[in-house]
């Protein structure tokens, strides 16, 4: 652990990074566990504060109210681990661990307004909803929301694969992405969990494979990155819920193997970013509030293989990119006029990074 003072230049932040520690069919895991890093916006450099070697495949993290939550992506013995964020972000301290039902959890999020936590099980296809106590720890067994159906891609859509679930800004609804059934479902939040039947469901194009989404601050629009079709789609969420626009994440005419990964909306609500594994880039769009809705601004070459996750610093100055297969994190300074970026500093070496989680 390093006790260097926290930098205060624009873009500076604390960052938790989850890694793959064991190999899975889609990754050769070489990671240590969870890393706590300080990002210095003045020099575009990352400095390690702490490394935790206990968690297995902590492939997704979520920070809320002084707690860091981690899911362990395993076919068996999946777990949720909880850490206290101490000393103003100087250290993480383990305060809880529970076994969770299902297999291959790949996403976790927290609804502070409702005191609920959501786990997305990719392997077994369920959404789990936990009640949280006053210390941010799960209370009892989760509500299990099972899904049914399949998609046209027999190799990836033979059954439901819930890849993402997160609350609306006001905490009254939860939106999930089911890659296996080409569905975006909305569940109403109740005092005792989630309404088991969706309030509404949006169907993506067949074989699209919705993976993650980014909500606008008013909760009226969702930008969805579709892993299998390498597209970003924009949906209106209120009635009549519908697709407003769709754009490729790849340059016109490019041919090659690619799967889209993460999607992020800039804090100013104008720029949208979607990562490509294969083309190894980040597609940049201007998000408009009327047709044509999505304008492609260009592509950012990230210089590393398989950018599994991207994250914006809280003030929107930098875009951070995790190159899973080249084992580093790169900082890109954003141009507010164009939404594009250029790399600054040297890549920070870190084995098998899977999730970048700026701490609030």
Question: What would a concise description of this structure say?
Answer:
This protein is mostly beta strands and 360 residues long. The chain contains no helices and 29 strands.
Keywords:
360 residues, mainly beta, Methylamine Dehydrogenase, Chain H, 0% helix, 54% strand
Helix content: under 10%
Task: Look at the structure and give the mean pLDDT.
Answer: 96
User: Nearest-angstrom radius of gyration?
Assistant: 19 Å
Straight-line N-to-C gap: 20 Å
Measured by DSSP, the beta-strand proportion falls in over 45%
Give the topology string: H per helix, E per strand: EEEEEEEEEEEEEEEEEEEEEEEEEEEEE
CATH architecture: 7 Propeller
Question: How many DSSP helices?
Answer: 0
The number of domains: 1
As for the CATH topology, it is Methylamine Dehydrogenase, Chain H
Largest β-sheet summary = 5 strands, antiparallel
How would you describe what is shown here?
The model has no long low-confidence stretch (mean pLDDT 96). Strand 19 and strand 20 (242-248) form a beta hairpin. The chain is globular and about 50 Å long. The chain has one domain (102-354): YVTN repeat-like/Quinoprotein amine dehydrogenase (Methylamine Dehydrogenase, Chain H). The chain contains no helices and 29 strands. It is mainly beta. The two termini are 20 Å apart. Strands 12, 13, 14, 15 and 16 form a five-stranded antiparallel β-sheet that branches.
SSE inventory with pairings:
Layout: E1 13-19, E2 34-40, E3 45-52, E4 58-64, E5 67-72, E6 79-86, E7 91-99, E8 105-111, E9 116-121, E10 126-132, E11 138-146, E12 162-167, E13 173-178, E14 183-190, E15 193-194, E16 200-203, E17 210-215, E18 221-226, E19 231-236, E20 242-248, E21 259-265, E22 271-277, E23 281-287, E24 294-301, E25 307-312, E26 318-323, E27 328-334, E28 341-349, E29 353-358
Antiparallel strand pairs: 1-2, 1-29, 2-3, 4-5, 5-6, 6-7, 8-9, 9-10, 10-11, 12-13, 13-14, 14-15, 14-16, 17-18, 18-19, 19-20, 21-22, 22-23, 23-24, 25-26, 26-27, 27-28
């Amino acid at each position: 652990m390093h006790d260097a003072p926290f930098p205060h230049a624009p873009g500076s932040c604390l960052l938790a990074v989850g890694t793959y520690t064991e190999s899975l069919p889609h990754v050769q895991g070489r990671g240590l566990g969870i890393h706590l890093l300080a990002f210095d916006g003045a020099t575009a450099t990352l400095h390690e504060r702490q490394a935790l070697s206990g968690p297995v495949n902590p492939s997704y993290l979520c920070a809320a109210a002084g707690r860091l939550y981690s899911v362990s992506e395993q076919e068996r013995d999946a777990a949720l681990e909880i850490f206290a964020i101490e000393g103003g972000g100087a250290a993480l301290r383990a305060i809880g661990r529970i076994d969770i039902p299902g297999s291959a959890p790949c996403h976790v999020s927290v609804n502070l307004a409702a005191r609920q936590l959501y786990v997305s099980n990719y392997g077994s296809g369920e959404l789990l909803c936990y009640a949280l106590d006053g210390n941010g720890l799960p209370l009892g067994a989760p509500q299990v929301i099972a899904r049914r159906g399949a998609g046209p891609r027999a190799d990836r859509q033979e059954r439901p694969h819930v890849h993402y679930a997160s609350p609306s800004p006001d905490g009254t609804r939860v939106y999930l992405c089911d890659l296996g059934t080409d569905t975006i479902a909305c569940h109403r939040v109740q005092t005792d969990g989630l309404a088991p039947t969706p309030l509404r469901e949006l169907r993506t194009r067949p074989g699209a494979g919705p993976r993650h989404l980014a909500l606008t601050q008013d909760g009226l629009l969702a930008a969805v990155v579709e892993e299998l079709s390498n597209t970003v789609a924009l949906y209106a969420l209120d009635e009549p819920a519908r697709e407003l626009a769709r754009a490729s994440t790849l340059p016109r005419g490019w041919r090659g193997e690619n799967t889209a990964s993460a999607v992020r909306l800039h804090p100013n609500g104008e720029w949208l970013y979607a990562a490509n594994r294969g083309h190894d880039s980040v597609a940049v769009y201007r998000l408009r509030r009327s047709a044509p809705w999505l304008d492609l601004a260009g592509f950012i070459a990230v210089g590393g293989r398989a950018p599994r996750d991207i994250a914006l610093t809280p003030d929107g100055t930098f875009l951070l990119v995790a190159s899973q297969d080249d084992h580093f994190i790169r900082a890109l300074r954003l141009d507010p006029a164009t939404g594009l970026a250029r790399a600054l500093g040297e890549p920070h070496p870190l084995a098998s990074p899977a999730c970048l989680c700026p701490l609030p």
